[in-house]
Design brief:
alpha/beta, 3 domains, 5-stranded parallel sheet, 20 helices, 18% strand, Nucleotide_cyclase, A/G_cyclase, adenylate cyclase activity
Length: 519
């Protein structure tokens, strides 16, 4: 386990993660695969991911791995090329060659090698083969970052990418070209017309950077010196998913005491939050493409994955706004769903961002992990059976299922009376079911009433945290409610209750009086 970093030593979550940073999270087996590929004479590594997913940070680690092998390195970021160099192929290739020479600390020598009528591609090839590679006593690792910019200039792109592919093919047989190892990164799909035999995007090692897993995020939380409850972590993960930049920005703000987790969850999908520039950039890009905006509206409006045209799906994925679930897409995270619902005019009620007094119910299955390990197929069937009963009762009592958490449910009721009545009927119905002891499940239920932040179909706030803690206090097959809930329902329902006294709940500052409800 990595040692937490003091807040005053945390680096700003912008740009590349430095090589010596303890905040870089590896995504196995990606790094190992890249390092092993790099030592091969025909190495070509293609890194693809939306912006701010860690492409440049990974590229720098691949290049560093090369230097540890004794290789030379050069890294070109095409965002640094003046626009004039994209005006024609000859100018572009001269800039390309001179930039590599400068990275290697060599004179450009363009006048000597850029002569004759053999064509720009041949001159560029001769420059690398007879000058740059010939000057080096070990392989050259050439990193090409942000090659998406070249896609905007098809007249250059077709020839340039064809050239990279030609060099890669020559490396299979020619010793000189075996000293060139290529690392390419891009975020957009390759829509330019490239001959399948002249494209560098269908050879070599493809690397598509995924989001961080919950375990990796927990690791990063620890490195920031933070600790979240299970409910707090779930709320954070539901809001921003595993997008590395979004996660690091959130943890940085909280670790530096600039904001609390609750304040973060409330402001994140607004222009008052820490993602203001990030969200505005996405909105600005969408405003330039009405067709793509209309497609995104379809995705944002739906609570389920939707099918959209393949080209638009990949464009939105390249922008980092959506993720695939099979062939369908859904928003990458609730941050985008909530923000764009409002900005694209899809908000239909104050429920999309409002503070409300609500009854929150958590359900959980007793001993689910060990039972899943013993017989996963049977356990999944039992959960599906019980959830069918529970969901039917939720509808009857005007409740709303906000999310399923594998073996539990997060539910929302506008009435505490209906929430408790529904909980009692759930436990009674499950207990009365005529099933064998081997397939019978016991559920715990916790219910609390408090102010919660309703946001894009989700619910956040301290009230949610308390309800989760109450569920863990309930006996199998029973219900645990807070004093607040008891005060509301005691004159409306005939309850069999036992006062449990004040209990100190994890993550909750003050002790809370609790009641045990026997169905």
């Amino acid at each position: 386990m990595n040692i937490p970093i003091p807040p005053n030593q945390l680096e700003e979550p912008e740009g590349q993660v430095p090589l010596d940073s303890p905040l870089y999270i590896e995504r196995p087996p990606i790094e190992t695969d890249c390092y092993q590929t790099l030592v091969r004479p025909t190495a070509l590594i293609r890194i693809k991911a939306p912006r701010q997913m860690g492409k440049s940070s990974l590229m720098q680690r691949i290049l560093h791995s090369g230097t540890q092998q004794g290789y030379h390195k050069a890294c070109l970021n095409f965002q640094l090329a003046d626009y004039e160099f994209f005006s024609n192929l000859d100018q572009f290739l001269q800039w390309f060659c001179a930039s590599i020479a400068e990275e290697l600390g060599l004179d450009d020598q363009l006048e000597q090698y850029w002569k004759g009528v053999i064509g720009s591609k041949n001159k560029c090839t001769k420059y690398l083969q007879r000058y740059l590679l010939a000057q080096l006593d070990s392989p050259l690792v050439l990193g090409l970052d942000e090659v998406d910019l070249i896609f905007q200039h098809p007249e250059i792109a077709v020839d340039f990418f064809g050239l990279l592919r030609a060099w890669h093919e020559r490396s299979k047989n020619e010793p000189t070209w075996q000293n060139l190892r290529l690392v390419i990164s891009h975020s957009k799909e390759v829509y330019i017309p490239l001959n399948i035999n002249q494209s560098p995007f269908n050879v070599g090692l493809p690397v598509e950077l995924p989001e961080l897993t919950p375990e990796q995020i927990q690791d990063l939380i620890h490195r920031h010196g933070l600790e979240f409850s299970e409910v707090e972590f779930t709320a954070l993960f539901d809001m921003i998913g595993g997008h590395p930049y979004l996660v690091r920005m959130a943890l940085y703000q909280i670790a530096k005491d600039k904001i609390t987790l609750e304040q973060f969850l409330e402001t994140a999908p607004t222009e008052a939050g820490c993602y203001y520039d990030h969200l505005r950039r996405h909105l600005s890009n969408l405003e330039k493409n009405e067709e793509l905006t209309n497609i995104l509206k379809q995705v944002i409006k739906s609570d389920y994955p939707v099918s959209i045209p393949s080209a638009e799906a990949f464009k939105l994925r390249s922008m980092g706004l959506v993720k695939f679930q099979g062939n369908d897409v859904l928003p990458l995270c609730n941050l985008y769903r909530i923000y764009f619902r409002e900005k694209l005019g899809l908000t239909t009620s104050s429920k999309d961002k409002d503070i409300a007094l609500a009854a929150i119910m958590f359900t959980d299955i007793v001993d689910s992990t060990s039972r899943m390990e013993r017989n996963q197929r049977q356990m999944l069937d039992c959960i599906k059976r019980d959830f069918t009963v529970i969901r039917d009762l939720i509808r009857q009592h005007n409740g709303q299922e906000l999310k399923s958490m594998g073996d539990g449910l997060l539910l929302y009721f506008s009435s505490a009376v209906e929430a408790v009545r529904c909980g009692i009927e759930m436990q009674q119905a499950l207990a009365a079911a005529e099933i064998s002891p081997e397939t019978s499940l016991k559920h715990r239920i916790g219910i609390h009433v408090g102010d919660v932040f309703l946001s894009g179909g989700d619910v956040l706030g301290i009230g949610v945290n308390i309800a989760s803690r109450l569920q863990s206090q309930a006996m199998p097959g029973e219900i645990c409610i807070s004093q607040t809930v008891y005060d509301v329902v005691k004159n409306h329902l005939s309850l069999q209750v036992t006062y449990l006294g004040e209990r100190k709940l994890k993550g909750i500052e003050s002790p809370i009086p609790l009641y045990r409800v026997i169905p």
